[in-house]
Design goal:
By secondary structure, the protein is mainly alpha-helical. The protein folds into 2 domains: 1-63, no CATH class; 65-197, no CATH class. It has helices at residues 2-25, 30-37, 41-50, 68-71, 74-96, 105-122, 130-142, 171-179; strands spanning 146-150, 157-161. β1 and β2 form a beta hairpin.
Length: 204
């Protein structure tokens, strides 16, 4: 029994350090790494020296808190919608693999890295950072400011801004409507709906 507990403790510590290395490689801010791994700032500083991470390879300053980064351009809005969809899929799979249906912060951190790596592979020129993904995943799960839904006209996946003017149609359908207005229906309010159920998780 004691040997099993010791082995689990070693495995857990190894996962924490491997996750920290992935987060450092993705230039996550110290605050994010600390909260997802539980490693102290001193431990992180020691690891960075060992991994030869220079100051130029790090992002400093406060973590992103504004949703404007996801809505600044149509390209960014589309990328954020894809990123949010991947988060829903990856997080849902991760949650179902847990005995109690809840995901610990190590699993959340690993899932965030998986999603970010998939995103950068498809959008290598993307300006969205891993810290943006943390903010986006929390917002989409809570449906407080942003929601992942479908366009009322073409059913395309879109990111809806719940704090701004309601956009029931995606950008492309809005442009098409400006040229040739489409009739509205009483059901339009129902068409931008959440895709799947949010996985309630304690990010931090």
């Amino acid at each position: 029994m004691e040997a099993n507990l010791a082995r689990e403790s070693i495995d857990q510590e190894l996962r924490r350090r491997q996750l920290a290395q992935r987060l450092v490689a993705h230039q996550a801010r110290t605050r994010t790494i600390f909260r997802l791994t539980g490693l102290s700032r001193h431990q992180l500083a020691t690891m960075r020296r060992r991994w030869q991470v220079t100051a130029e390879m790090r992002r400093r300053g406060p973590v992103p808190k504004s949703f404007a980064a996801f809505l600044s351009t149509q390209r960014t809005r589309d990328e954020a919608a894809v990123m949010a969809l991947w988060w829903r899929l990856f997080a849902s799979v991760g949650a179902t693999s847990q005995p109690n249906g809840r995901t610990g912060r190590l699993e959340i951190g690993e899932c965030l890295c998986d999603v970010f790596e998939a995103h950068t592979a498809c959008f290598p020129a993307s300006t969205l950072e891993l810290d943006h993904l943390v903010l986006l995943s929390k917002s989409v799960d809570e449906a407080a400011a942003l929601a992942l839904g479908r366009c009322a006209t073409c059913e395309a996946v879109m990111l809806a801004d719940l704090l701004g003017p309601r956009r029931r149609r995606c950008y492309r359908c809005q442009r098409a409507e400006a040229v040739s207005p489409l009739p509205t229906t009483s059901d339009e309010q129902k068409r931008v709906v959440s895709i799947g159920e949010g996985v309630q998780q304690e990010l931090f």
